[in-house]
Design brief:
The complex is a heterodimer of chains A (about 120) and B (about 110). By secondary structure, chain A is an all-beta fold. Chain A contains no helices and eleven strands. By secondary structure, chain B is an all-beta fold. Chain B is about 0% helix and about 40% strand. Chain B contains no helices and nine strands. Classes of the chains: A mainly beta (about 120), B mainly beta (about 110).
Chain lengths: ~120, ~110
C-alpha cells in the first residue's frame, strides 16, 4: 500500500526558516516523481513543484521558483519542502503527493502539514 | 499560467446528476488528454477521482465520469449521494517544459 506520511504542524515567526518532510513507503521511492501542493486558508489548490528522487531533477511553478526549495533524500525515502525566510503569507496547508508520469497527475496524497506563520 | 476556470458551486438532490465544467486553453486542457479530477472533503487531503480525462482509479465508483470537448473538460456525478458533498478540483498537464495547473474549485452540495 502506497503511503505518504508528512511531518506535523508548525508554528513559526516571520523571518524564520523551516523544512517539512514527506516520507514515502509501499512503492519504489526513487522511481516516481513527488510533488508539493499549497492550499491557503479557504482557498484552492496550487501546484508548487515536483522532484524525481532518483536523480533530484526538480521543476518549480514560476509562482514558487525562488520562494521555496524542494529536495529529497532517497536513502530514507523522504522528500522535503524548505523555506529560508518565512512570511505571514506562507500560512497554509501543504500537501505532498506522488506524481504519476504515466497519468500526468497526483495519484497518492499525504495527510498535509499545516504551517502557521505569525508574529 | 492561469488557473483553470470552474463554477464556484453546483448542487443536486440525492439520486440526481451534477456536472462540473473546467475551462482552460489549447496549451493545457485542449492540448492534452491529461485532465484529472480530485475530490476534497473538509479537513481532508484531496483524492484522485478521474485521470486521463475519463479513467477511474481502482475503487472510485462508476457514478463518477469525465469527458472533454475542446478546451473544456467536465466531471459528472450521477446518482448523487450525501457523501459526494465536497470540493472538486480539475487539473491539466501543460507540457514537459511547463507545469500542471489546477482549477479554481467547485463546491458540490447535495440538497
Amino acid at each position: 500500500e502506497v503511503q505518504l506520511v508528512q511531518s506535523g504542524a508548525e508554528v513559526k515567526k516571520p523571518g524564520e526558516s523551516l523544512k517539512i518532510s514527506c516520507k514515502g513507503s509501499g512503492y519504489s521511492f526513487t522511481s516516481y516523481w513527488i510533488g508539493w501542493v499549497r492550499q491557503m486558508p479557504g482557498k484552492g489548490l496550487e501546484w508548487m513543484g515536483i522532484i524525481y528522487p532518483g536523480d533530484s531533477d526538480t521543476r518549480y511553478s514560476p509562482s514558487f521558483q525562488g520562494q521555496v526549495t524542494i529536495s529529497a533524500d532517497k536513502s530514507i525515502s523522504t522528500a522535503y519542502l524548505q523555506w529560508s525566510s518565512l512570511k505571514a503569507s506562507d500560512t497554509a496547508m501543504y500537501y505532498c503527493a506522488s506524481y504519476s508520469s504515466s497519468w500526468e497527475c497526483f495519484d497518492y496524497w499525504g495527510q498535509g502539514t499545516l504551517v502557521t506563520v505569525s508574529s | 499560467q492561469s488557473a483553470l476556470t470552474q463554477p464556484p458551486s453546483a448542487s443536486g438532490s440525492p439520486g440526481q446528476s451534477v456536472t462540473i465544467s473546467c475551462t482552460g486553453t489549447s496549451s493545457d486542457v485542449g492540448g492534452y488528454n491529461y485532465v484529472s479530477w480530485y475530490q476534497q472533503h473538509p479537513g481532508k487531503a484531496p483524492k484522485l477521482m478521474i485521470y486521463e480525462v475519463s479513467k477511474r482509479p481502482s475503487g472510485v465508483p462508476d457514478r463518477f465520469s469525465g469527458s472533454k470537448s475542446g478546451n473544456t473538460a467536465s466531471l459528472t456525478v450521477s446518482g448523487l449521494q450525501a457523501e459526494d458533498e465536497a470540493d472538486y478540483y480539475c487539473s491539466s498537464y501543460a507540457g514537459s517544459n511547463n507545469f500542471d495547473v489546477f482549477g479554481t474549485g467547485t463546491k458540490v452540495t447535495v440538497l
